[in-house]
Amino acid sequence: xxxxxxxxTTLEEIAETLLKSDDICxxxxxxxxxxxxxxxxxxxxxxxxxxxxxxxxxASDDPIDAGxxxxxxxxxxxxxxxxxxxxxxxxxxxxxDVRRIGEDAAKVRAAASKTITIDHHAVPERQxxxxxxxxxxxxxxxxxxxxxxxxxxxxxxxIATCAYAGLMTDTGRFQHSNTDAAVFRAACEMVDAGADPxxxxxxxxxxxxxxxxxxxxxxxEHMELLCDGQAALSYIxxxxxxxxxxxxxxxxxxxxxxxxxxxxxxxxxLRDEGTQVRGSFRAKDTTDVATxxxxxxxxxxxxxxxxxxxxxxxxxLRQVRKVVCAAVSDEALR
Length: 334
Ligand SMILES: [Mn+2]
Fold this sequence. Notes:
alpha/beta, 13 helices, six-stranded parallel β-sheet, six-stranded mixed β-sheet, 12 strands, 42% helix, binds manganese (II) ion
């Protein structure tokens, strides 16, 4: 277990604080993924079991994926802008930075009397009153699973199912380098408690939209291999998205397709949103792509990171081409 210097508390202390609180809001990050929503819903289920008023907030009112919508309690998610009354305690999960929760949720947070962060992304500074950040945890959902034990609740089907969804997605279906024994031990406990691996895998990974398949074809068409095939770079244009009627979530798996190519160590995927370009990096070896993403003002994990560039796609591609090859050859020298 590695806790960052920004951590000023323990999961036990967070549990004590929550046990003394009522009226708790639980928020995640914009463009929520399985770990974000899974962590939020697992914590809500635990708090509701304790008879607490717990509200799960969506950073924006954009629709969420079918897999996420299938989780127990997903019908309780409220867009932050629709929240009628403020909450006393604001918990943010899987979101290290206030900028990651969006403007509406940031207002809810500012009005709360206590703020708590539970996360596994390392950040330069502590932003909440109580902050627990463990970058060695494969998923925030793993921390919520432990927190639920400290809360003394029965870790039931709902908590186990939501936590398992977070673990399954943030480990890339138990395949990424963060998949360690602690992950399998926790997954085992969750399955014992009722989480159904096959049903969750089907809900999350067997529901690709036609647009996402068509985008994959465009992605492969646009792909270039760099630095002797050690890096793959591709992009999706604004026009690609519009002509296929695709949405952001249709693009999520594209960077993993690039990474899966034999010999590729780092994959980079850009998506032109018209006014800005969103980028994703993935590493297959020990190359630290979070450092790469930080050069563009982004961040993330060693093996998976993202960034935003406010310039035309052509220029963004040129910049990314440059840093990717430099990073791959730096790594080769080590
Ligand atoms: Mn996460």
